[in-house]
Amino acid sequence: LKGHTGSVQSVAFSPNGAFLASGSDDDSIWLWNVQSQTARGSPLIGHTATVTLVAFSPNGALLASSSANEAIQIWDVQSKLAIGDPLRVHHDGVCSVTVSPDGTLLASLSTDETIQLWDVQSWTYGDDQLRNPGAWVQSVAFSPRGTIIASGSYDGNVVLWDVQSQTAKGRPLSGHNDAVFSVAFSPDGTMLASGSRDFTVQLWDIDSQTAKGYPLRGHQGAVFSVAFSPDVAILASGSTDKTIKLWDAKSQIAKGSPLRGHSDSVGSVAFSPDGAVLASSSRDKTVKLWN
Fold first, then answer.
1. How far is CA 87 from CA 1, 23, 65, 70, 84, in A?
2. Alpha-carbon torsion 129, 133, 137, 141, what sign?
3. Using an 8 Å Cβ cutoff, are 158 and 150 in contact?
4. Which of 37, 104, 130, 224 is the most buried (most CB within 10 A)?
5. CATH code of 20's domain
6. Helix, strand or coil for residue 108?
7. Number of structural domains found in the chain
8. pLDDT digits over 84-130, tens only?
9. What is the domain range of residue 212?
10. Structure pTM?
C-alpha cells in the first residue's frame, strides 16, 4: 500500500477488520480499505511531527494518534476529522498511545519517562502518572481485561502496572540485554511478548511474572514490533533486518521462513481481528498485507 512519503511507523486494524490505519514520519495518517487495498480518500492531516503510533477505540469509531512533538490527536473515523484540539500533557515526544479494551481509558507514554492515563469521555487526565524514573519508556499495552498495563523501557526491563492503583506489580521483568521496543499481551491474557534491540523476543508468564523459556532468536537486527494472532497460536515479530518472523507461541519455534518483501526496517506488525491477514509497515514508506 503506497501513499506515504516517509517511513511508516505504525499500523492498526479497525476492530471489524475492514480498515487499516497507518501513521508515518511524513506527519500524516492514512486509512485503507483492507478488501480493496485502496486508500479511503485523502490522508488525515493535523500533526506537525512524526506520527509515532495509531490505535483504534474498541468500537472503531475513534482513532488515537501520538506524535513526536508532545501531541495526541483523536479522530472521528467516519468523517476523518480531528475531534477537538490535540491533547497535551507530556513534556517530550509521545512514543505510543493505546486504548483500554472497555474504551474508557487512553494510555499515552512519552520520552519524558511517564505514562499518562486519560478519561476517554472527558479527555481529561488525572494527577497521577506512572513513572519509571531513569528509564525511557518505549512501548505500552493494556491487558485484555484492562486491569494491567505493560511498559517496555530503554533499560531493557518490562514493568507491569496495576491500572486501578497505578502502581507497579512486583519487580520489573528482566531478561533483555538492551532496550525493549515493543510489548504485546496475548489475547487470552496469559502471556506477554517483548521485542528488543538485543535482536530477541521474550515470552513472559503473566501470573508468575517470569520468562517462559529462552529468548526467541533468529532476527539479525532489533525487534521493533511484536503481535499475537487472535487465537494466540502465532506470534509475529518485525525487525530492522527487514523481515517478519512468525513463531509458534506454544513451542516457541519459528514457523517456516521469514516474510521478506520490505526493503528497509519493519517498524510495526498487526494481525487482523480474524487472524487471516498480517499487516506490516516499514521505513521503505509502504504498508504490506500478508495472507
1. 29, 17, 10, 8, 9
2. negative
3. yes
4. 224
5. 2.130.10.10
6. strand
7. 1
8. 888 766 555 556 788 999 999 988 876 667 788 888 887 777 666 67
9. 8-290
10. 0.93
